[in-house]
Amino acid sequence: MYSEKVSFEGSLGQTISGRLEHPVGRFGGWAIFAHCFTCSKQSRAAVALSRALAQHGIGVLRFDFTGIGESEGEFADTDFSSNVADIHTAAAWMAGQGRPVSLLVGHSLGGTASIVAATGIETLKALVSIAAPSEAAHVISQFGDGSGKAEADGSAQVKLGGRPFTITRELIEDLREARVGQAISSLRLPVLLLHAPGDQEVSVNHATALFMAARHPKSFVSLDDATHFLDRDTDTDFAASVIAGWAERYVTPEDDNDDTYSGEGVLVRETQGPGPYQNEVLSRGFRQIIDEPRKLGGSDTGPDPYSMLSAALGGCTSITLRMYADRKGWPVDHIGVAVAHKREHAEDCTDCGEADKIDTFTRTVSIEGDVDEDQLARLLEIADKCPVHRTLESGSRVRSSIERKSRANKVSGKPKNSSLTDV
């Protein structure tokens, strides 16, 4: 998994700062995460949930609303409606990057804003709201005496989360005018609500109101004893696993999505990510990152090509041994395979240059279990019979072709004018 710093123009014209958490494993679509009121994309819940979802295969854009965190603008110039509009501009930016948003996740007032914003995102397939107020005006209670002063004088200074903010009459009026219940009842999308019964910031009654207003299919999951801000790893991990499992039913990418590949073998392509050599590997809905270490000019966000090749040998070895041990009924509890690669001169080469070096894979197999020496020796023999081992030792042929292609074209996986090369 890697996190990419991004920016785009917000609803008020200022630059919005975001982080794009790229997915790991089987690709499950792209999501936007909207943070809580006066929080930021760096809040604990925003970071932990976004990264946990990425581990489940869902790529996530988390960003600072205008006037918050690293985004440009003044908080005093924003309101609830501008937050909703920022979500819309974020979704439009993602679509422009070839990453249409299918899942919208919002936390606290970010969840309320997400409910209102959902109707304006055409590609959206599902909505998740975490500990969200059923009315945006709920947050006015956090302003204390400042709300009355702002309504009387036009603005007031208040402290929220220990930090000073300027609130305005326009903000308060906009919060009161938001029609959240009407918005959620008009949605024709699956809705998931998560809320802790003991939430001290936003009562679980708000989740009840939202659930009653939403149309089916709708789901509610209790966060048990979690705090409003999801302060514990166990709470964010649980929430992320629930969201990912629930979303899989609704937001599985189409076969022709640009982030999947249905052709034979694998597709490897540049990501235009944080470094010049970062590529993504797509195969049967799975996605991995391949890169070079920093000492070679890469960004070190994934294994290098030879490490991937070593992993193929190690994985094939382990799987082959497991199949053999299970078929024999041998008490093999665990198998581990360490593989190292280097280029070295052949043992019988006395005067060799760089071109005369050969690739050497050093493989160490570890076996846990009550097996005797004869069984260990036989397992080592079987290791040499794994298909990838045989491929590496016997040599291969690579059929190569090249084509001119525009980014607008869909991935076909069909080579043209292939040639044959012995390696």
Characterise this structure.
The protein is an alpha/beta fold and 423 residues long. It has 3 domains: 3-135 and 178-247, Alpha/Beta hydrolase fold, catalytic domain (Rossmann fold), CATH 3.40.50; 261-302, no CATH class; 304-423, 2-Layer Sandwich (GMP Synthetase, Chain A, domain 3). Helices cover 31% and strands 25% of the residues. The chain has 11 helices and 18 strands. The protein has helices at residues 44-55, 80-96, 109-117, 146-153, 169-177, 180-186, 204-213, 233-247, 305-328, 373-383, 387-394; strands spanning 3-9, 15-21, 25-26, 30-34, 59-63, 101-107, 126-130, 155-160, 163-168, 191-195, 218-222, 267-270, 279-283, 286-290, 332-344, 358-369, 397-400, 419-422. The strands form 5 sheets. It has an 8-stranded mixed β-sheet with strand order 1-2-5-4-6-7-10-11, sandwiched between helices. The longest helix has 24 residues, at 305-328. The chain is elongated, with a radius of gyration of 27 Å. The two termini are 33 Å apart. Mean pLDDT is 88; it is low at 408-423.
Short description:
By secondary structure, the chain is α/β, with parallel strands linked by helices. It has 11 helices and 18 strands.
Secondary structure blueprint with pairings:
Blueprint: E1 3-9, E2 15-21, E3 25-26, E4 30-34, H1 44-55, E5 59-63, H2 80-96, E6 101-107, H3 109-117, E7 126-130, H4 146-153, E8 155-160, E9 163-168, H5 169-177, H6 180-186, E10 191-195, H7 204-213, E11 218-222, H8 233-247, E12 267-270, E13 279-283, E14 286-290, H9 305-328, E15 332-344, E16 358-369, H10 373-383, H11 387-394, E17 397-400, E18 419-422
Parallel strand pairs: 4-5, 4-6, 6-7, 7-10, 10-11
Antiparallel strand pairs: 1-2, 2-5, 3-14, 8-9, 12-13, 13-14, 15-16, 17-18
Helix pairs in contact: 1-8, 2-3
InterPro entries: AB_hydrolase_1 (IPR000073), AB_hydrolase_fold (IPR029058), KH_dom-like_a/b (IPR015946), OsmC/Ohr_fam (IPR003718), OsmC/Ohrsf (IPR036102)
Domain AB hydrolase-1: 32-237
Region (Disordered): 393-423
